User: What shape does this take?
Amino acid sequence: MHGGRDRWSELLDADAAVPVAFPYFVTADVARAIDTPQRWLRLAAEDGLVVTIARGKHIAVPRHAAWGWLPDPVEAAWLAAAARFGRALPHVSALSAAYLHRVVPSLDGQVHVTVPSQTRDLAFPVLGATVRFHQRDPDECRRTVPWRFPFASEGGLGIDTIAGELCELRVTSPAQTVLDLLHSPTRAGDRGLALRAASRLVPGVDPRELRALAWRQRRLDAVERAGGFREPRRRP
Assistant: This one.
């Protein structure tokens, strides 16, 4: 959603600092700008200007959206993470990344987002989804070295940016998604689906990119599995 400052000030009818993940915002953002946040939220919801997706968590409805509009659960999940950690670190991952790359048909009620510190799951009842947060080292999250420079630094992730209706969200690249799903398929929630998703992604991934990422992340065993696509050993 473009023009965040103008849109936020227009909604509030007041000049106020724009929430970092706008159009996602929390009740406290409203309370910092006006004296009657609960009344404002009630009236804004009645007018179709705001959707409350969880207690204290809201999304500003796009100007030209139809009545009854609801946000995409993946975008809402990423924006919730961006509100806490900023836009540079969180990224959609695991089976949710596979969904965005169109190799799994649905989200199955869960959205996977990787963040730099331990975070509790977050339910969005109105969207029929629960956000599963996965922790990854923040330094690794910050390094997104292009694959064509595989030995530029140790660590680093393959991250793409996808334009959504509400924002440009960060998501693991197809190659990074393959590595993540093969390295720890049970972490995605459904081991069988994770392995099938990886197998569907592999043909479209440049093997040089896959090896470059695996070398930086010390996940060469996952590359071996991708090559012959053998099922990973079950860990005790």
Summary: The mean pLDDT is 87.
